[in-house]
Amino acid sequence: MTIVETVERTDVLEFRKDVPVRMSDGITLRANVFLPLKPGRYPVVLSYGVYGKDVHFCDGFKPQWEILNRLYPGLATDGSTGRFLRWETADPERWVPDGYVLVSVDGRGSGKSEGFLDPFSSRETTDYAEIIEWAAAQGWSTDKVGLLGVSYFAMKQWQVAALRPPHLAAIVPWEGASDIYREWARHGGILSNSFTEGWLPRQVLVNQHGNGDSPLRDPDTGERTTGPAREPGILAGSIAPFMEELRAHALDDAWYEQRCGRLEAIDVPILSAGNWGGPALHLRGNVEGFLRAGSKQKWLSMHIGTHYESFYLPEYVAMQKRFFDRFLKDIDNGFDQEPPVRVVIRRPDGSEVRTDTAWPLRATEWTRLYLDAGSESLGFEAPTAGASAVFDAGDGEVTFRTDPFERETEFTGPVALKLFAASTTTDLDLFVTLRLFGPEGKEVRFVGAHEEVPVARGWLRASQRRLDAEKSLPYRPYLTHDRIEMLTPGEVTELDVEVWPTSIVCPPGYTLCLTVAGRDFQYETPGRMLHNDPTDRPDGVFSGRTTLHTGGDRQSYLLMPQQPR
């Protein structure tokens, strides 16, 4: 297949398509470059991924495109036609007229880029660093490069920034996991299989080398299918067995280490934007990335809504531009004086914005809500009497409820759960879900990144319960995931569950509930982040009976980040 670079000019930009970029090992990657019409040198905003730089948002993600157009009719109120819009990357028509060059690169082995496709690999990260330096050296570049994008395009930012390419000046990882093991592959040690099983064929395989321009669609389902550019056998042999690797690597080993950037090594300014509605993928990563990154100038912004909505809506595009104006253009616009933390506080009937100088928020009052198995309640007072609750790990659960709140109560920040549990087998998986119910008993559900979500979730495989003493905090247990220690059937074991950060205001009359189960919590429409791989969760081990112990000398509790109102 012969690929020829082409040039096109519109009313607002110059579009150079399929620009070749030679890697150090001889492989050629392909980039789309969007330039201002006026010749000159401009800062570069770069993205690198595997979703096809030439696949229009509407072609690849039609339902999301239709939702975005309903929220933002026509995508034209700020001069954009949406013609060049690609999934989870910046819109050139919104950026180039403001004096930026946008560069979008097909990752190795995807779209029109040659090579072996190995998602999140260290070779990919090396490519990304080389592309940053290539972009900085071009005649249209000021030699300052910033990174911007959602999900995959954000996750790669954490990785490449840790390599410290000399001309990388700032990054904006928008809803992007920073720990492949804990946030993508294995929540609490439990394999998160369903997302990856759907993601690989739907978003990756369709964009393998040669399949980037005109994706075919199945006539019955409308789903994109592999294009005809290369033989199926060649395609199958040109991608790493990603799902098989996830199954094979149950512990946080060297395979994951090469796919996680060393956050402490990052030294460029960061705007880390997370979504409270990230059900089981990116939310934790934006918070942990912000906290652990070595950068002296870094900001955390937590928003609500779908991830494509937040990324493209005018107020958030303005935030991104203001950040890059400061650190790519050196415009003294005051961004570096902004409070480092900006959070949208969720309410059942709306939201509000708050800023702070620290995370967790400085005013946090760490509050214990104690579990009482006898009354299946959550309370501010520790129960004196011991009690237990039993549920079938295969299809049972137990729910603990607060009394209706007498006054408005807010919880914003990290959450931790202390449990004492026993199993009739040699292991158990815990799926914990925090939910809010109104006075009439109706649950408050939130619009998530891509599905309805409850207040918060957490997970733990008991055999991987060992804590990292150096990294653990009272409100954020950190598991080593470096060994397996099976349970003795019937023996009570102390367990610490990391519940992902959250924000919720509980009005008077509302009730907060904690559901503990041995399988995924789901609404009527199954979520995309399920943990149901039979090889990872064999019935003989994970379908026993689980007993939770509370009170007395086994005080089980939620540690909640209560905020003064």
Q: What's the SSE blueprint?
A:
Elements: E1 6-9, E2 14-22, E3 28-35, E4 42-49, H1 57-60, H2 62-71, H3 92-95, E5 101-106, H4 122-137, E6 141-150, H5 152-161, E7 168-174, H6 180-185, E8 186-187, E9 190-191, H7 194-204, E10 216-217, E11 224-225, H8 232-236, H9 242-248, H10 254-257, E12 270-275, H11 283-292, E13 298-303, H12 307-312, H13 314-327, E14 341-347, E15 350-356, E16 365-372, E17 377-379, E18 387-392, E19 397-401, E20 409-423, E21 429-437, E22 446-447, E23 452-453, E24 456-461, E25 493-506, E26 511-517, H14 539-542, E27 545-550, E28 557-563
Question: What can you tell me about this protein's structure?
Answer:
The chain is of the alpha+beta class and 565 residues long. The protein contains 14 helices and 28 strands. It has an eleven-stranded mixed beta sheet with strand order 1-2-3-5-4-6-7-12-13-14-15, sandwiched between helices. Strands 16, 17, 18, 20, 25, 27 and 28 form a seven-stranded antiparallel beta sheet that branches. Helix 4 packs across helix 5 (152-161).
Which key terms come to mind for this protein?
14 helices, 20% helix, 565 residues, alpha+beta, 7-stranded antiparallel β-sheet
